Amino acid sequence: MADPIPFRAKPRTAARSAVVVGAGIGGLACAIAMRRAGLTVQVVEQARKLREVGAGLQLTPNATRILRDFGLLTRLEQVAVTPRSLDVRSGASGATITRAHYGPAASRYGAPFLVVHRADLQNLLAEAAQAEGVLIALGSELTAVEPAFGGVRAVVKQGENLIAHGADILVGADGVRSAVRAHLGVAKPPVFAQRLAYRATIPVPARHPPDVRLYMGRDAHLVVYPVKGGATLNLVAIVKHTEPVARWSAPGDGAAVHAAFADWAPEVRELLKAAPHFLCWGLYDIDPLPRWSTGRVTLLGDAAHAMLPFLAQGAAQGIEDAAALARALQKETDAATALKAYETERLGRTARIQSEARRNGMVYHLSGAPRLARDLVLRRQGAALLDRYGWIYRA
């Protein structure tokens, strides 16, 4: 690991330009937010093209409210689906344990719940960023983060060339294995959750309702919801796996998936059988960091607070980060002070969500008497189930 780079204090100057490392959901949202705040923005991305990674994702009102502020909600709704309800079911029997309708909750929190294909959201954000004047350089692998006179620069490798992108601030939005985080000297290793996620998409079966369905069972669960305007069903099968794996969007073993759900309800097995293939991820998060920023460099999204997907908040929290960072840059007259203010605002909230996501991962997979107690609580919550996380959605 590289030694942390000393960033000497600079004269108090407002940020007028930024380099964002990473063109995922959080990085692109950050680029849009900062551009709207008046900064010149350059995005550098290691991938040679923006491509589908994952499949579907859920966007809760705390995220869709910000996308509406960006002027993107109407376009997003054209490719997304507004789900009818959250339908929590027993994996063994397929019977509904509890159901909560999204419509009333969306009214309470002032913005919709949406489900969308990750590629559709990423493409929408990339197009919007470029329309705002953001420059996006693909095929740019970060090699160094260096102090520069009055600012900071990202040194990237493009082909055989090294190119330095200088700016007033640098934002590391480069994921759970963030290179920027390592340069800041706060490189906590990703924590393996002893879970694998197998993802697939299939055509929506006849008469399948526009719900988000969560099937829970011992050491496994399945999440199902429509994407692509309702034409495609997104499947995410989570199974226990004790040995750490480094796979990321790699071909998955279909036989292992079917074996893990072999004694589940027929409707679950039929959905999984309809998948032509699976892609596999090892699930990782990171422990909360003591800080995100040093001088003119800060972190955003998974680089700052990678979390497990059991609260549907990974993308949403990256979008929240983007809006908070832009607000801090507009409010503070000094760039480094703005980054510290952003960090201070976001640290506690994201750490709490990381903890809650880890807890949900255990709750979903209970068996025996704890499972019965969990199901009883869920039945009693009923329509109020979504309000348990009102502290997230109303932010």
Give a quick summary of the entry.
Helix content is 35%, strand content 28%. With 395 residues, the protein is α/β, with parallel strands linked by helices.
Produce the secondary structure layout.
Elements: E1 17-21, H1 25-36, E2 40-44, E3 56-59, H2 61-69, H3 73-79, E4 85-90, E5 96-101, H4 102-109, E6 114-117, H5 118-131, E7 135-137, E8 141-148, E9 151-158, E10 161-167, E11 169-172, H6 179-184, E12 191-203, E13 212-217, E14 220-227, E15 232-240, E16 248-251, H7 254-260, H8 266-273, E17 279-285, E18 297-299, H9 302-305, H10 314-331, H11 335-363, H12 368-381, H13 390-393
Could you please describe the fold and organization of this structure?
It contains 13 helices and 18 strands. It has 395 residues and is α/β, with parallel strands linked by helices. The strands form 4 sheets. The chain has an 8-stranded mixed sheet, with helices on both faces. The protein has a 5-stranded parallel sheet with strand order 7-2-1-11-18. Helix 1 packs parallel to helix 5, helix 1 packs parallel to helix 10 and helix 2 packs across helix 10. The protein starts with 16 loop residues before the first strand and ends with a helix.
Provide tags for this entry:
395 residues, 8-stranded mixed beta sheet, 5-stranded parallel beta sheet, 13 helices, 35% helix
Q: Describe the main β-sheet briefly.
A: 8 strands, mixed
Strand content: 25-35%
Query: What's the helix count?
Result: 13
Could you tell me the radius of gyration in angstroms? 21 Å
Helical proportion, percent range:
25-40%
Rounded mean pLDDT score: 92
Question: Reading side by side through the largest sheet, how are the strands ordered?
Answer: 5-4-13-14-15-12-17-16
Indicate the low-confidence ranges by residue numbers: 1-11
| Distance separating the two termini | 36 Å
The structure class reads alpha/beta
Number of strands: 18
Overall form: globular
